[in-house]
Amino acid sequence: MRIYSSLLQLAALGALSAAGAAVAAEVDTSAWKCKTCPYPKGTQVSVEAGIGTVTDESSRFGDYTGLQRKEAHAILGGTVSHRSGSGYYAELSAADLGLDTRSLSAVSGLEGLYSLRLGYSELPRHLTDGAQSPFLGNGGADLTLPAGAGFPTGSTATMPLATTLQPLDVGYKRQRFDLAGKLTLGDNWTWRVSVRRDVRDGSQPTYGSFFASAAQLAAPLDQTTDWIEVSASYVARGMHATLAYQLSEFKNGAAALNWDNPFVPVVPGATRGQLALAPDNQLQQFSGSAGYEITPTIKASADFAVGRLTQDAALLQPTLNGNLTVPALAAQTLDGEVETFNGSVRLTAAPMEGLRLNASYARDVRDNNSAVQSWPVIDADLFVQAQQRSNSPFGFTQDRYKLVADYRGPDTWKFSGGAEQDNKKRTYAEVVETRETTLWGRVAVQPMDELTLSARLAHAERDHSGYGQAVWFGAPQNPLLRKFNLAERSRDSLGLRADWALSETLALGLALNYADDAYGESLIGLQSARSFGAAVDLSWALSEQTRITAFVHNENLRSRQRGSEAFAAPDWTARAKDQFDVLGVGVKHAAIVDKLDIGADLSVSRSRSEISMANVVAETGFPVAKTAQDTLRLYGSYKLQDNLWLNASWWYERYDAQDWRLDGVAPATVQNLLSFGQQAPQYSVNVLRVSVRYRF
Nearest Cα to 645, choosing from 6, 50, 85, 14? Predict the structure, then answer.
């Protein structure tokens, strides 16, 4: 290495400075503009307006997109922003004002002192496609059948559905209003206030039954959730801390759903049914976090949250059947109360060069203090059970321990490893305590500058304190049954990854993942579950104007479970096979540099689900369920002037599903089930959009 003299460097710099000064004196920089400055000063306005059209109707396609109707829609949005030299800024933005996915937001503030934000957004949900129902008053809390039409009857085959069925769109609109503010005092303190209201208005599907007959119903949604958070943060050299208070209130405008029984009552008086809907409730919580730098190589942090949930909504009567003699309720409200605690501590240390250690402990507690009382039990509004049943205040305590080490070895080797312990104690469950231990390791190496390889291996073992019978469940369970979330389990997983830069413009990635769950002690229940996934991703810069990205992903899931028809030893086996394949390709191309940009995105996805059965009589199975979705987007932007762009796009999507649970099941197909009759979604939709964006 050559080392130049300091005097020579100073002489060279002086000569360059003199030459630069001479050139600067000859160049007029008054018209120069900074195109990459992050905070341009002044006022800027950008407006986009245009028109779009949808070629076909589909509730499924309109879910989350707002494009469910076959009609034209307006494209309208834009931004207005202002920033002054003193640090004041303000911005107003709007998007999708012509759709049900519209959003508005406004931000204003003074850099380093305060900020205010106001927002509004909508999101549509469409939960059925092609549903029908004879009930009147859908969307409300009282569903009735047409008077004099011929209801009730003994089965769906004799119901007057040909004259009473009407189209039904079950879904809702979610609206969000939010307001937030931040105030910074001095160099250390920051105060924040956040207020949010979520409103869900519409309906959702549910079922109502009378003994062996049932009907699919549209339950009303009239729900409001209000959230407020106030916090204070302190930051100083080597430490930070935050303390906050949160309040959440949920209110439901519909306490219950009432409906007429479309079937002939099994017992007198069972002509009307009632279902309780989500009750009003409240959450109050204090939370905090802190971090401290003990030494330059040792850091500690902690957080906590202490909360209290309450629910005191009025209870419904056990039945609307006036012919039944029902004992009085033990109370008119549940007076429910749950205390929560979440807390964790973490320690990070770098005891030597190349080695980093992380240790943490976390506790999660749900303490249900609701009173335990006895309640009358009504079977499907038909019979009163002689024995009452008590409510079960479920709760748990979970402790998690983690230790992780990262080591940078010789050359390009990197090693990571860790141990995790998860202990969970439950109340009113078949298992009092489960204990799960996980050990894992990861190694990565770069054998050449263009290639990086990594592998991760993990093993976990879960055991429990002993499996018993749940006292809260009315019907007895097979003593050989083991629920998968409580049973003993052994889990192994392996992950491999390779990233290869084939050239300066071409990069390739490969990934393989395998996981195996074994439930060796479960005679009845889930026996095993395996998954295998493979993925390939590619990035290719053909030129400065053209870039291509692509990926392919495959995942296969296999599971096996055993059961007993005779409430004894296992006598049947079910095997499930699920496969998912996804392919995606994206192209971006500057057709005319700084003038015309075009692009395309293609995605193809397939899924297949198959369940086979084997029992002592014969081997049976369910039909194969399939879905196929193809999506193609073409888009382009042409600069007409320096501040005017013409945008156009075409979005094509095809969806084809085969689902034996829906296909061929009309409202009267099952004699004791009055269903919506919706079929598995199938659509082919084109969306064309043309707009102009103007900036001034």
Answer: 50
Reading the block at residue 412, the tokens are: 């390009």
Six-digit token pair at 18? 């003199």
pLDDT in tens, 510-555: 999 999 999 999 999 999 999 999 999 999 999 999 999 999 999 9
Q: Which helix (H) or strand (E) holds 47?
A: strand 42-54
Please choose, from the candidates 685, 692, 693, 604, the residue with its C-alpha nearest in 3D space to the C-alpha of residue 651.
685
Quote the pLDDT of residue 39: 60
Q: How many CA atoms lie within 13 A of 129 on its CB side?
A: 19
CA distances (Å), origin 386, targets 326, 375, 472, 476: 10, 11, 16, 17
- CB 362 within 8 Å of CB 344: yes
Say if residues 218 and 143 touch (Cβ distance below 8 Å): yes
Query: What DSSP string runs through 543-564?
Result: SSSEEEEEEEEEEEEEEEEEE-
User: Cβ(140)–Cβ(217) under 8 Å?
Assistant: no
In this structure, which amino acid lies at residue 462? R
Are the beta carbons of 607 and 649 closer than 8 angstroms? Answer: no
Distances (CA, A) of 487 to 438, 491, 515: 16, 12, 18
Separation of alpha carbons 220 and 170, rounded Å: 9
- Residue 510: which residues within 8 A CB-CB, separation 6 or more? 496, 497, 498, 500, 535, 536
Tally: H helices and E strands in the chain? 3, 37
What are φ and ψ of residue 59, in 5° steps? -65, -35
Helix (H, G, I), strand (E, B) or coil at 400: strand
Looking from the CA of 642 toward its CB, the CA atoms found within 13 Å total 2
Contact assessment for residue 155 and residue 171, using Cβ atoms and an 8 Å cutoff: no
Q: DSSP E strands: which ranges in 323-449?
A: 336-352, 355-368, 374-375, 378-379, 383-384, 389-390, 396-408, 414-426, 433-448
Query: Comparing C-alpha atoms, which of 666, 572, 660 is closest to residue 608?
Result: 660
> For tokens 């699920």, what's the residue?
578
- Mark residue 643 as left, alpha or beta (left: phi above 0; alpha: psi -120 to 50; beta: remaining): alpha
| CA angle 469–473–479, rounded 5-degree value | 30
What DSSP element (H or E) covers 625? strand 625-641
Q: Hunting for tokens 């992950």 — which residue is that?
A: 495
DSSP string, 107-141: EEEETTTEEEEEEEEEEEEE--SSEEE--BSTTSS
- pTM for the whole thing? 0.88
Which positions of the chain have pLDDT values less than 70?
1-39, 471-474, 616-620
| Distance between CA atoms of residues 511 and 516, nearest Å | 17
Which phi and psi angles does 594 have, rounded to 5°? Answer: 60, 25
Which two structure tokens, joined as six digits, stand for 499? Answer: 């990233």
Which 8-state DSSP code applies to residue 7? H
Angle made by CA atoms 496, 498, 501, in degrees to the nearest 5: 175
- Tokens standing for 170? 């079950």
